[in-house]
Amino acid sequence: MVFSGIVIGLIACIAIGIFHPLVIYGEYHCGVRLWPCFLVAGIILCLLSLLVKQMILNATLGILAFCCFWSIHELFRQKKRVEKGWFPKKPHKASQDAGDEP
Questions:
Q1: pLDDT tops 90 at residue 65
Q2: CA-to-CA distance for 73 and 66, rounded, in angstroms?
Q3: How many domains does the chain have?
Q4: Is residue 10 part of a domain?
Q5: pLDDT value of position 1
Q6: Is residue 95 assigned to a domain?
Q7: Average pLDDT over every residue of 21-43
Q8: What was the pLDDT predicted at 85?
Q9: Residue 96's pLDDT is what?
Q10: Distance separating alpha carbons of residues 102 and 70, to the nearest angstrom
């Protein structure tokens, strides 16, 4: 029996499960300005995937790369979900809200 397909599928599910809250957390704390980090990480992971010969590690790097690329899209969708009120906005500091203090 060959289990590599099942292992790769499990890795894909785990990666999606990790990146979903990562996008929500990232948008909450940094906003959409986080997208270049996902782009750079995705490119690096793609390049690493091209260099690795071991199949499961190669596939894992590719899956993580494209999870990073998809996260760029999801950051902007998450911003819209926050604007609709589906997710909480990060509260501003009291000094920023008042506008009086330097």
A1: yes
A2: 11
A3: 1
A4: yes
A5: 84
A6: no
A7: 94
A8: 87
A9: 36
A10: 39
Alpha-carbon distance 75 to 26, whole Å? Answer: 8
> In this structure, are residues 95 and 58 in contact, taking their beta carbons and an 8 Å threshold?
no
| pLDDT greater than 70 at residue 36 | yes
Host domain of residue 80: 4-86
Q: Is residue 99 part of a domain?
A: no
In a domain, 40, yes or no: yes
**Distance between CA atoms of 48 and 40, rounded to whole angstroms?**
12
Six-digit token pair at 60? 């894992």
pLDDT band at residue 88 under the 50/70/90 scheme: confident
Nearest to 73 by CA among 100, 30, 34, 29: 34
What is the distance between the alpha carbons of residues 77 and 86, in angstroms, rounded to a whole number? Answer: 11
- What would the mean pLDDT of 68-92 be, rounded to a whole number? 90
Q: Is 31 left (phi over 0), alpha (psi -120 to 50) or beta?
A: left
- Helix residue ranges, H only, 1-102: 4-30, 35-51, 55-83, 94-98
